[in-house]
Amino acid sequence: xxxxxxxxxxxxxxxxxxxxxxxxxxxxxxxxxxxxxxxxxxxxxxxxxxxxxxxxxxxxxxxxxxxxxxxxxxxxxxxxxxxxxxxxxxxxxxxxxxxxxxxxxxxxxxxxxxxxxxxxxxxxxxxxxxxxxxxxxxxxxxxxxxxxxxxxxxxxxxxxx
Amino acid sequence: xxxxxxxxxxxxxxxxxxxxxxxxxxxxxxxxxxxxxxxxxxxxxxxxxxxxxxxxxxxxxxxxxxxxxxxxxxxxxxxxxxxxxxxxxxxxxxxxxxxxxxxxxxxxxxxxxxxxxxxxxxxxxxxxxxxxxxxxxxxxxxxxxxxxxxxxxxxxxxxxxxxxxxxxxxxxxxxxxxxxxxxxxxxxxxxxxxxxxxxxxxxxx
Lengths: 161, 205
Description:
heterodimer; A: 5-stranded antiparallel sheet; B: 205 residues; Rossmann fold; 6 helices
């Protein structure tokens, strides 16, 4: 189960964003996040307020992975949907492909059934796009040439304040 | 497993701090979180037990200067060191780009270090990865406590593979060695990902 590097080029990002926008419109969700199962966010849309995307990505991926491990203990390959119900907002997390999950945040303006229905549709469309991105070159344009020693040093130099 | 987003101009890497229980993995992240300027760090998330032992992981996103107009983000994770949490350790390793092995230098903890290193190797194998092929550094932590094993002996025990890797003495609680460790693994990740120009590599060596 080796994970593959992910590369999202501008054109693919636009297509993913269009699918997520349509999903928000169709399902009346408040926000949608595309997350790699390693915990890293890939795309987001509809976040009216500022969300801590990094932490949400890490925690949602962890919850999803631990649920998948639980499923395996029960002899299932995985539980493909996770649902967390809050007082005002709820969260729906579902599988896109082996490497990616889709997280939707929604409130009382819609229902879990609507979110689930359109999440399935959006996941299929995003899955196709991601499959295509994996065939694209990884390093192009500004990133094509190897780093100079100075560039490598600057980009890895974390300094205390 | 890096993520390059040309639209958002962001490159993400995942670094996992691995090692036996109580070796100081969380202390490393806490020190980094305490010391980095606000602009270079996100929120630190810790999933811990009531007595502050790591239950699932700690998470801290950090970034240094970018490269060629791209922001480079390093997502730092720790694993729970206690032996019975292997399932969660394995989950945290998913998609890892670089590893810091935090060893406890005390004599009494040598066996746990060796077992944890072996466990790391086994867990990486499940993802088709191997320490030999990835950016990896060793940190000998708790050098301020006694009695600690001499550095040579720790190197012999924990860093004598076909490819010896950079190692650092550390006292994570006061920050000694913490940033040297982080910066070295970050740099190794970048060079593995993008390569380093030959001329520049010669200059820097």
